[in-house]
Amino acid sequence: MDSESLEAPWMAARPTVRSTVPRRRNVGDRVFRLLTASFGLTLLLVVASIFLVLCYQSRDAVRTFRWAFLTTSVWDPVAREFGALPLIYGTIVSSLLALAQAIPLSVGTALFLSELAPSWVRAPVSFLVELLATIPSVVYGLWGIFVLVPWMRSYIGPALSGTLGFLPMFSGPNYGVGMLTASMILAVMIVPYITSVAHEVFQAVPAAQREAALALGATRWEMIRLAVLPYGRTGVIGAVMLGLGRAIGETMAVTMVIGNRADVSLSVFAPASTMASVIANEFTEATYDLYLQALVEVGLVLLVVTVVVNVLARLLVWRVAAPAGGGH
Amino acid sequence: MRMVRGGLAALLLGLVFCGNAAAQMQLNGAGATFPYPMYSKWFNLYIQVDPDTRFNYQSIGSGGGIKQITEQTVDFGATDGPMSDEQLRAAPGRILHFPTVMGAVVVTYNAEGIATGLKLTPEAIAGIFLGKITKWNDPALAATNPGVTLPPRDIVVVHRSDGSGTSYIFTDYLSKVSREWNNKVGKGTSVNWPVGLGGKGNEGVTGLVKQTPFSLGYVELIYAQSNSLPFADVKNKTGAFVSPSLESVTAAAAAFADTMPDDFRVSITDAPGANAYPISGMTWLLVYEKQKDAEKGKKLVRFLDWMMHDGQQHAAVLHYAPLPAQVLAKEAVALRAVTGPDGAPLAGH
Amino acid sequence: MRATRRRIVDRVARALTLACTAAVLAPLVLIIGYLLAKGVTSINLDFFTQLPKPVGESGGGMANAIVGTLVLIGLACALGLPIGFGTGVFLAEYAHSRLVPTIRFCADVLNGVPSIVIGIYAYTLIVLPTKSFSAYAGGFALAVIMLPIVARTTEEMLRLVPANLREASLALGVPAWRTTMRVIIRTARGGIITGCMLAIARVAGETAPLLFTAFGNQFWHHGLGGPISSLPVQIYTYAISPFDDWHRQAWAGALVLLTLISATSLSVRLLTRGRFRTVR
Q1: Domain ranges of chain C
Q2: Which residues of chain A does C207 touch, with a Cβ-Cβ cutoff of 8 Å?
Q3: Residue C107: what are its φ and ψ, rounded to 5°?
Q4: What residues pair up with B51 in beta bridges, in sequence order?
Q5: In the predicted model, what is the mean pLDDT of chain C?
Q6: Which of C21, C210, C230 is most worth mutating to test chain A (most A CB atoms within 10 A of its CB)?
Q7: Distance from CA of C211 to the nearest CA of A (A)
Q8: CA-based nearest residue to A175, from A274, A93, A75, A257
Q9: Which residue does chain C place closest to B52, by CA atoms?
Q10: Spatial separation of the C-alpha atoms in residues B221 and A210, rounded to whole Å
């Protein structure tokens, strides 16, 4: 730690203050700085050790399967074969399906909140949307098992296979549990995240842009289309990526309704497994070392994917919403 | 503000310590879901026998029981599939198997119009779980069930998603009766299922079968019974269709009682005998021969002793079969081998 | 003609955004509705005071799980709040340090780490070496999840404090660290507490990292070095079980958990609303 950086930001930023206050290296200041810095370093250490622990605990699996771990599709503990492809497929497809449902709903809601809603509606509605984010995953799962799964089996599934059954996506038996059900629960869970960030992004659109559009005689919708959406596009993509990060790592609700079957199937009615759900199901019961290591490696893949998605998302959101590096 | 904070801290401290006051010693165990109803009943009854001890049992699956006892994160494990030689070698100490009760793995189903007692041949069961028999009205099912209206619907197969002793018993049975199963899938606590949905634990499979029309799965007898789900009669080695029950499981065990090996690791599936139910299984508690904590070891041995005597009388109420007398006698001998960290036997108070 | 078409498109688009909002709020209404309808009837005194009954027997309650959740939250706070808060102070007050961007980046990375992965981490770091599932391991996992939330909110709240407050304090000869403690942090107190409570609300419902750390317990926990029951894990276990009585208790447990969580976030919001305004 060099001595220049020991100064607090306001000192550097305000030379007038610095010149009037006698510069003393107060012992208390040093201790305080060291103390808070050590807390910060603890956080650093935690993140680094998560990576190290996961790498170390999966070393034999990585060495045994190498890249085949990501590209083969047999997950067979008896034969000691571990290919994570069906799990990666399950994670990607369930998350993308969830996004396909969540994006229009979230962007629509965010537009409603920022552009169209009367001010007395705005606060309660955004509060309710935020409330959706506070519902624990396991409660979504409970509701999924006892409400959504029976609906899926008796109404939604038959309706889809009745009308769109000619597509391979909507063919095959419908059990109620499966990829589509999991993606619907996921969609509900990520909607609040995408909505609130998109809302912020739209609010950051300069008023002059809107006024200019309106002054040219545009209707509200035309104003949104010409001024708000293009301006907010990057931020919305960031918001979607944040939602994607959530969806990929989501565990309990998905485990409870996805059907738990490590298989690649085109049909969205088919049961599947995600990386997170396999860990939740099998982690405490992997009976031999290689099995456990394979599960930790799944965790490692999951970690890397979510970190990459989240970092991309934050870069995109920051560029638009909060130039100072703040952002929620 | 400060008062609120103080109050909160006091409340939390209180919460932390009220747990301590409630029990003086707690032994933790984990494993099989197959005998979970029996164990939770036993551990609840045992509070009256020894009010100072609590046995906390979490039914995470037999695979979990083996794993956690090997890692020594629990004081005892439980499984319905005996540990393999390789698994025993992987443990840091010698692990003993103590049989507790026996039970039946039943093929349960949820198909409108089909009452309990659907007659299934071993070939039909293997065919369904291999994905070769996909319809309820398949000839293989119709042939043995004249007079039953079988719906022309797809069979929704349900199996375990976790490492399971129930799966072990079931796949052990299928490996014995079907060569194709033995070659393609094999036996184990978790296998690569050719078809079907996965449910976690006996609880999860029962839940899925109950909620999914035209489904079929395998669970311990009591899970089907306590949920009023129908279950099938299975054709045994002698060609008779036998319904799973206390008596038919006892009959299966009788065939093995005299030849019980000293480490109790034996499979009782596909037993000979006209009355024997073929998918019967034994379930074990897993205990280190050398206990690292003498006090806990003593409590554990005392519980096992109670289980072999008084405990057995409660089995029938939950439709588990008590162990044959020969097996119990043999177990009492084995119990004397359990020692404290110093090598002194813990049995015989 | 063209004008009417434009007006129709405008109307339709507006109606669509309204429909989206309705579709987003519908699940909330449905979930809360079902929780109330199915949960309320199973909530009685026994639910809060009794231990679970053996499998298949009806009755009993979730007293140990409710207490267990509170204990786990307490442990998580004891570890997560000070470290998160200290990190937040460092990020805001020493923004020129070279470490700051790295730590801030790490906080954001940690915020995105799936909770199940943190479960594996806590299992490896605490359960395996101590050879026991424990409340400590569960509390540790939850603390790790809390850390980045507390750190980033603290940072943001401190940044909102006007610079002239700091200048006034320094001008009076108060050392910088005392200024930070007595002026800056005190001014931002409301916002920081809100952040902490939101972090608590977030971890209170976490299930995945507890599955193989805190584990479960059908009795009262026996010290913090052993397995402990928690509401989310109990709800999960009961939800996937086949027993109707357990299903009822799962609904009741979910209702209690959600009430606990929304009461936390709601009360804080209402309590700190006034203070926030004065800060700005």
Answers
A1: 2-41, 44-272
A2: 136-138, 251-252
A3: -60, -45
A4: none
A5: 88
A6: C21
A7: 8
A8: A257
A9: C222
A10: 69
What is the chain B residue with the closest CA to C219?
Answer: B56
Q: Does the beta carbon of A261 lie under 8 angstroms from any beta carbon of chain B?
A: yes
Whether the Cβ atoms of residue C218 and residue B56 lie closer than 8 Å to each other: yes
Would you give the end-to-end CA distance of chain C in angstroms?
50
Distance CA A202, CA A231 (A): 8
Scanning C23-52 for CB atoms below 8 A from A yields 23-25, 27-28, 30-31, 34-35, 38
- CATH superfamily, region B104-259: Periplasmic binding protein-like II (3.40.190.10)
Q: For residue range A138-169, list pLDDT tens digits in order.
A: 999 999 999 999 899 888 988 998 888 888 88
Do B231 and B224 meet the contact criterion of CB atoms below 8 Å apart? yes
Which chain C residues contact residue A239 at CB under 8 A?
none
With a cut of 80, say whether residue A292 has pLDDT above it.
Answer: yes
CA dist A158 to A163, B69, C23, C196, Å?
8, 46, 21, 46
Say yes or no for a CB contact (<8 Å) between C223 and B19. Answer: yes
pLDDT tens-place string over residues A29-41: 889 999 999 999 9
Q: Residue B200: which of C223, C228, C240 has the nearest Cβ?
A: C240
3-state secondary structure of B234: strand
- Could you tell me which residues are beta bridge partners of residue B160? B199
Mean pLDDT of B259-288: 90
Q: Looking at beta carbons, which residues of chain C come within 8 Å of A322?
A: none
Give the pair of three-digit tokens for residue C276: 């926030």
pLDDT above 90 for A54: yes
∠ CA C201-C203-C207, rounded to 5°? 125
Other beta carbons within 10 angstroms of residue A324's beta carbon come to: 8
- Contact criterion met (CB < 8 Å) for A37 and C95: no
Q: What is the SS3 assignment for B74?
A: coil
Distance from CA of A161 to the nearest CA of B (A): 16
What are the tokens at A74?
Answer: 């047999």
Determine, for residues A287 and B63 on separate chains, whether the beta-carbon distance falls below 8 Å: yes
Q: Is B218 helix (H, G, I), strand (E, B) or coil?
A: strand
pLDDT in tens, chain C (280 residues): 567 888 999 999 999 999 999 999 999 999 999 999 999 988 888 889 888 888 767 788 899 999 999 999 999 999 999 999 999 999 998 888 889 999 999 999 999 999 999 999 999 999 999 988 999 999 999 999 999 999 999 999 898 888 888 889 889 988 888 888 888 888 888 888 888 888 998 899 999 999 989 988 888 888 888 899 999 999 998 888 777 888 899 999 999 999 999 888 777 777 665 544 433 2
Strand ranges (E), B202-248 = 215-220, 233-235, 241-242
Which pLDDT score, from 0 to 100, does residue C270 have?
73
| Predicted pLDDT at A2 | 39
Burial C153-181 (b: 16+ CB within 10 A, else e): bbbbbbbebeeeebbebbeeebbbbebbe
Instruction: Report the C-alpha gap between A320 and B114 in whole angstroms.
Output: 62
What would be the CATH architecture of the domain defined by C44-272?
Orthogonal Bundle (1.10)
Return residues 283-322 of B near C (CB < 8 Å).
318
Q: What is the mean pLDDT of chain A?
A: 86
Which residue ranges does chain B devote to CATH 3.40.190.10?
A: 25-100+282-335, 104-259
The tokens for B247 are 């008596």
Torsion of CA C221, C222, C224, C228, to 10 degrees: -20
CA-based nearest distance B68→chain C, Å: 9
CATH of B25-100+282-335 given 3.10.105.10, 3.40.190.10, 3.10.690.10, 2.40.240.50: 3.40.190.10
